[in-house]
Design a protein that fits this description.
single chain; 13-stranded parallel beta sheet; mainly beta; 2 helices
Length: 463
């Protein structure tokens, strides 16, 4: 689980086009925890670099430190933090309630930075902003930078907590995760954050969830982690369950953009949809694995896009360097678009785990990937369904067990502008109406209802 796991020439233009499509048209599903609207019925307090902790915390007489506010806030209270750089560590001391969250956020229109450059965090999983054994807390709009200490030092860290919302924050230069959630936390929302240069050290991932029950990770941007540490983007692992990962954009990192790994515990009921992963420099766009024997079950990938990644668009693997069995059951890969993946070697979709049962690969567009389009390990062929995919530039790669599957369509998918990462379909595309109804999602990447014509289209976009 802690395994150290082509830069695309038009990345900036691509990101712009996909961003417009992504945020303008995609539906806005409710997060798994339902905590979108948060009532704040308590008091409002203020913090300012020019304040004093002996003050009452009013707008005209604010407190000086966020950490002091963290000791005083009660259920329903909000602290508005005035602009400035705060060289401190924040540990909330109290919990909110279901209708009275405790909220930490900047004063409207102002920029607030928590800078840990002068702070050494304690060893073994801690954060500059750390929530432990608390509930009903919202952290919004903060800049959290330079988290350092041992290799487990995070920007924002949540442990054994419930009903926590981490939204619209910016993390930069963190030794471990920008955002880490560990040890049996429940009902976690991570949305609208930007995580930049995480994993300066060798441990964990940019956004890392371990053992979480009920989570929604959406609208986040993760990019530019150091190549040397070879760490993933968004990872959900080790007993995490009942969650969604959607509408995230991940690029310019060394290892898999989105990684689901059971590790040692049953990990299940996870939907991954509407994400964009590109320019992964040393791995695949998306991966699922069971590294140490935990059952990985009921994992659904649909409406995702992956392009310009070094190896494959998506891989069902065992990542077996850690040893142990690698059980999987019911892994769905449907209506995704994978284009131009593979440097010297690579492909679209690879099914590499002989212990996986019930893998279904349907309705995907596999176009111009380097060595193969769809590869299925011979030992897994009888347990893997490959149907109704569009294959563009079939290689007949016997070394990688390349297959077309049943009901396939072959030819140029006719994207609107692949060079600019606009993977919508043009009229006359062979992908139109050629998909299977089985496993097809009810809407496409842009939120358009499926099917729009005589049948389901292949790929992430419905024409």
């Amino acid at each position: 689980m802690q395994k150290k796991t082509i830069i695309f020439c038009v990345a900036l233009l691509a990101a712009g086009v996909l961003g417009i499509l992504y945020f303008s048209f995609v539906l806005q599903p409710k997060p798994a925890n339902g905590a979108v609207a948060v009532a704040a019925t308590g008091k409002t307090y203020y913090v300012s670099p020019g304040g004093k902790n002996s003050n009452p915390g009013t707008k005209t007489k604010p407190w000086k430190t966020i950490s002091y506010a963290a000791k005083k806030l009660k259920a329903g209270d909000t602290v508005l933090i005035r602009k400035g750089t705060y060289k401190e560590r924040v540990l909330p001391q109290n919990s909110g309630t279901a209708d009275k969250y405790i909220t930490y956020k900047p004063y409207p229109g102002e920029k607030v930075t928590i800078d840990g450059a002068s702070i050494t965090l304690p060893s073994d999983q801690h954060g500059l902003f750390e929530i432990v054994d608390k509930s009903y807390i919202k952290v919004s709009g903060l800049r959290i930078i330079n988290a350092k200490g041992d290799d487990e030092s995070n920007g924002i860290f949540v442990s054994r907590s419930a009903h926590v919302i981490i939204e619209k924050n910016y993390t930069y230069n963190t030794r471990s995760s920008g955002i880490g959630v560990w040890w049996d936390s429940q009902d976690i929302t991570i949305s609208g954050n930007e995580v930049v240069r995480p994993n300066v050290g060798p441990m964990q991932e940019a956004i890392s969830l371990s053992g979480a029950d009920g989570f929604a990770i959406f609208n986040n941007k993760v990019h530019d982690s150091p190549a040397a540490t070879d760490k993933e983007g968004i990872t959900v692992k080790d007993g995490s369950r009942n969650g969604k990962i959607y509408k995230n954009v991940i690029y310019n990192i060394p290892a898999a953009g989105i990684y689901i790994d059971a590790w040692e515990k049953h990990t299940y009921n996870i939907k991954v949809y509407g994400n964009v992963v590109y320019n992964i420099s040393n791995s695949d766009g998306y991966q699922v694995a069971s590294e140490m024997g935990g059952l990985l079950e009921n994992i659904n990938f649909n409406n995702n896009i992956g392009y310009g990644n070094k190896f494959r668009g998506l891989t069902v693997t065992n990542n077996g360097d850690e040893g142990g069995p690698h059980p999987m059951k019911d892994i769905i890969v449907a209506n995704n678009t994978f284009y131009n993946n593979g440097g010297e070697w690579g492909g679209c979709i690879a099914m590499d785990n002989a212990e996986a049962d019930g893998v279904r690969i349907r309705n995907n567009i596999c176009s111009q990937n380097r060595s193969f389009e769809i590869s299925v390990l011979s030992a897994a062929a009888q347990k893997t369904i490959v149907e109704n995919n569009l294959i563009h530039e079939y290689k007949a790669d016997t070394e990688d067990n390349e297959v077309r599957g049943a009901g396939y369509v072959e030819g140029d998918p006719l994207f609107v502008n692949a060079a600019a990462a606009d993977f919508r379909l043009l009229a006359g595309s062979p992908a139109i109406d050629k998909g299977a109804a089985a496993d097809a999602p009810p809407v496409d990447f842009a939120g358009k209802a499926r099917p729009a014509g005589a049948g389901f289209d292949v790929g992430a976009f419905e024409y």
